[in-house]
């Protein structure tokens, strides 16, 4: 441990770097020998954990950026400004992580730019691709003041400052389109998504759950960063933010109940293993966090609001997995469970995200923005 | 207008010789696969990047009688192909002549076509790295033969005359005439006439099609809903963008008004 001490590297950081190195090695193997060499993906399961978790969950969990930016800039709720920058950073890193995952999962990553020149406007994936490209650009611009401030670049700061409101409106618009389009992807697979989850309202469901998980993710992430980076926690502020969660989950729940009733699908809710998952998702991850966040005691208590936030996050993850993977119907009896190298790729990308967050927190004005830089002035 | 071709597969004539499976590999220059006995004559067990046409051996029971049947399993060449609808770069498309073909210079390998295909046909080169250029692979109805006046390799080779290549409309008429002529021999339906908006490949069978291994599907293309949503997307984006801008302006004016009022109050007190 003496070498580590001398280099001032904690064991945690060492594990993160080891994961990143492992991921990089596996990625090399993927580029040399193909996706089949490092994954259990097959012709019956062309999409696996990388799409279901890294992409679908990754984008949903990055929603805190647009929900917070909307609250501060569009609705003008200035009191949320202190948590804006961490939220933007989480969103930006989230999207970058999605892109890195895509560079492993895409069959021809070197051609990703084809999305720009070859168009098929009938395809939901076309919309998804454009939303990723454009919103990542918007997030980069929303993040850029932290860099400009750090180096004291006045002119670019002034320019970003001028266009912030346009960026935020664009970001909210693109996020609405992107979050919902990830649900629309599965409108093209009516027979394959489990009936309890398949619905013409999938785009709306994906959007609503993303809006609910946005603040929840900000709460969870604030708790973690407060503990790890040993900074104060904005309990009052986060408590206020949490007030937004129950109404959104409530709308989602009511729509879901009406939808299942109108389409006459309740029979599917009492049938098989997927029915059990459905109830776990609805009771444990929608109703429970909704009820918890309705109580001010929960909202104002660091531990319990962290727990309730985790439930919302877990619910979105379970929902995306149920829609796209666990409930997936195939005619063939082929099975899929992620290969350990698939997990390794996912973990290495998360590790890179954590390291990047740590670096930004250490070297850029993340938590205490100088007032010159706050673009809303 | 171009003649729209198709293929009629009369599964009651198929003898399961796999001649079409081999002819397909020959014409398309596809390698063999190392397989093992899995307790079925179907070999290899499923379509793959190396096998675009497969005879599936079906042991099943109809009306209390055991039977042995065959299914020629390959791309159905839908009239409204979901693979083409969902491909973000338009690499897959339907030719006016019938074949659904693939531009391998455009594909980015997202595999949405595989996810969306109701017949689960497209396959992927799982074991090719960057240098080997992985691609989506599937039957293309021998478009290179058809466009040169030849018939597809599978149809050409079939010794039992189970595969008839021709104009889709005439094939449907022919199939329906066959059913009328021998109603005891066939299920009274031509599979592919209306499925997901119609397919270029049509089937006649002695047993119900789902028992043969063909999926039960409606008459609308599976992508009808997603295409509709895509049509609404741009107008929705315009309206939502304008609404957001309006809201931003509204809240800004309101907050400014509130600030102003607060200042006035301060002054007067």
Task: Please give a structural write-up.
The complex is a heterodimer of chains A (377) and B (269). Chain A is mainly α and 377 residues long. Chain A has 15 helices and no strands. In chain A, helix 3 packs antiparallel against helix 14, helix 5 runs antiparallel to helix 15 and helix 9 (202-228) packs across helix 14 (302-326). Chain A is globular, with a radius of gyration of 21 Å. The N and C termini of chain A lie far apart (49 Å). Chain B has 269 residues and is an alpha+beta fold. Chain B has 8 helices and 9 strands. Chain B has a 3-stranded mixed sheet. A two-stranded antiparallel sheet of chain B has the order 2-3. Chain B has a two-stranded antiparallel sheet with strand order 4-5. At the A-B interface, helix 2, helix 7 and helix 8 of A face helix 2, helix 3, strand 6 and helix 8 of B.
Structure summarized in a few sentences:
The complex is a heterodimer of chains A (377) and B (269). With 377 residues, chain A is mainly α.
Structural class of chain B: alpha+beta
Helix count of chain B, per DSSP? 8
Task: Write down how many β-strands of chain B occur, each being a DSSP E stretch of 2 or more residues.
Answer: 9
Mean pLDDT of chain A, nearest integer?
93
* Termini separation of chain B: 85 Å
Segments of chain A where pLDDT lies below 50 for 5+ residues?
369-377
What level of helicity do the residues of chain A show? over 70%
Give the averaged pLDDT of chain B, no decimals: 95
Pair with the most extensive interface? Answer: A-B, 62 and 59 residues
Helical residues, percent of chain B: 25-40%
